[in-house]
Amino acid sequence: MTADVAVLGAGMHPWGKWGRSFVEYGTAAAREALADAGVDWCDIGSIVGADTVRGGYPGYVAGATFAKALGWQGARVASVYAACASGAQAISTARAQILSGLADVVLVVGADAAPKGFFRPAGGDRPDDPDWLRFRVLGATNPAYFGLYARRRMAVHGDTLEDFAQVKVKNAAAGALNPLARYRKRVTAEEVAASAVVADPLRLLDICATSDGGAALVLSSVDFARRHGAPDPVRIRAVSTVTPRFPNTVLDLPDIATDSAASVAPPAEPFRASIARAAYEEAGIGPEDLSLAEVYDLSTALELQWYEDLGLCGEGEAAKLLGEGATAPGGRIPVNPSGGLASFGEAVPAQAIAQVCEVTWQLRGVAGERQVAGARVGMTANQGLFGHGSSVIAVR
Amino acid sequence: MSRKRTPVVAGWFTGDGTDGEGEADFRLLGTRCSACASVFFPREDVFCRNPGCPGGELTEVPLSRRGRIWSYTDSRYRPPAPYVSDPELEWQPCTLIAVELEAERMVVLGQGAPGVALADLAVGMEVEAVPGVLNEDTETTWTTWHWRLTGTPGSAEAEADAKGAAGVVA
């Protein structure tokens, strides 16, 4: 087990389609997090930015972009990119600096301004880029992969379209209580069923939107937190940023094929389960210890997949767990009390940080109407394109 | 002027009619490591990706022509560039099929052949790789691979059935 780092402050810019620069969203979130922490920006020793590929050069050097916007003050700077897992990489970088003594207090920021419609690859003619190839050769958008996973679950586990719709119903109800969510309206199963099919069997309301948003955290050593008047802060106990193991036998975005398991037996657990296991091992806890989880519901069916990968239930039992209400507010293990991506839409580099913001507020007991009673341990999980695991466990 | 048939990606398949071959010659092409026998598609030509392998020669190998459906979906909305489609024409949904190849123990994604409807598909059905056309421009017919159900008109099995030579594998 490694030492804990303290979450001194958390802040977000509301998710939506605001039509402004990612720099504005990130800077607003950073100011919120600094105010929440009671730390002056000029006392921050290091800033880590989670990059966006949609903002041009400033997006690739997000750490410096946010530092400049907040006002140059000489902090150490880093910028990281890992697709949807960028936020967890930024948290991991900040944590490593704190645990190694390189910095006492670090600001982590991620923000995005998303275009309308499908995410698309960077421009140009780039036949060496798997992400370019899947669009050029197959027209395989992200929802197409979500559709493949959903159909596979239906065939193997007997999940139904109604099961998927109930995930949306649950998350929309939670999002309706969250002032930071983009969609704040309850949704019925009938409305899901009546929405247009995007990638069979998934419909528009099964699939998360792409959004603008920004999220930030102020992290510090536990000693710094105590000196700063926070004797009992939310503490990050584990950050999992693992890669897959060869052969990776689940078709992952943006790949056209899996690895072959003809000569080497596949690992005992698939990639997503290994992301969670690494976090559990680092934290020294298990799924039975969780009070809540924030998982990456890019689609309704994927949320069910995460239940199994996090060990909240056995393989194939996710729909049953959902049906019992275990993952709903008041259930044994509420999942996505924030409303999830279903209510936020995805703001890629901000999303994994936003998950930790929600866990922080839940563990502090300040989540208002969506508060999980007595929350002590929270877990986040997501997966970034090109083999990036992302999971954070926080405790209070 | 006739268009030149050109594979959308060089070296990923053979028998697409570029050199006048017949459909029965069509195969996806991967590579195999001489040291550990791992197979790669899309092909790896420089380094073996098996972390336990000391590193061998990577030589071209045709993949199994047939496999079984691992999963499937479709694209109801026009995919963005670099996918090529005529913006003047109404978008026609296209099936996408992920196919498990038994010998290679891998899953390969491809578009369903024209005429393959979503309602025809189920996980576990047998399909075969056939040559297909991705798009055409003024000078080029860009060729690709498609997955087609075996036992459908035009497939090798259907032809064999027609001759009374063999039944469709259940």
TrEMBL record, chain A:
<protein>
    <submittedName>
        <fullName>Lipid-transfer protein</fullName>
    </submittedName>
</protein>
<dbReference type="InterPro" id="IPR020616">
    <property type="entry name" value="Thiolase_N"/>
</dbReference>
<dbReference type="Pfam" id="PF22691">
    <property type="entry name" value="Thiolase_C_1"/>
</dbReference>
<dbReference type="InterPro" id="IPR016039">
    <property type="entry name" value="Thiolase-like"/>
</dbReference>
<feature type="domain" description="Thiolase N-terminal">
    <location>
        <begin position="5"/>
        <end position="111"/>
    </location>
</feature>
<dbReference type="InterPro" id="IPR055140">
    <property type="entry name" value="Thiolase_C_2"/>
</dbReference>
<feature type="domain" description="Thiolase C-terminal">
    <location>
        <begin position="276"/>
        <end position="392"/>
    </location>
</feature>
<dbReference type="Pfam" id="PF00108">
    <property type="entry name" value="Thiolase_N"/>
</dbReference>
<dbReference type="InterPro" id="IPR002155">
    <property type="entry name" value="Thiolase"/>
</dbReference>
<dbReference type="GO" id="GO:0016747">
    <property type="term" value="F:acyltransferase activity, transferring groups other than amino-acyl groups"/>
</dbReference>
UniProtKB/TrEMBL annotation, chain B:
<feature type="domain" description="ChsH2 rubredoxin-like zinc ribbon">
    <location>
        <begin position="22"/>
        <end position="58"/>
    </location>
</feature>
<dbReference type="InterPro" id="IPR012340">
    <property type="entry name" value="NA-bd_OB-fold"/>
</dbReference>
<protein>
    <recommendedName>
        <fullName>ChsH2 rubredoxin-like zinc ribbon domain-containing protein</fullName>
    </recommendedName>
</protein>
<dbReference type="InterPro" id="IPR022002">
    <property type="entry name" value="ChsH2_Znr"/>
</dbReference>
<dbReference type="Pfam" id="PF12172">
    <property type="entry name" value="zf-ChsH2"/>
</dbReference>
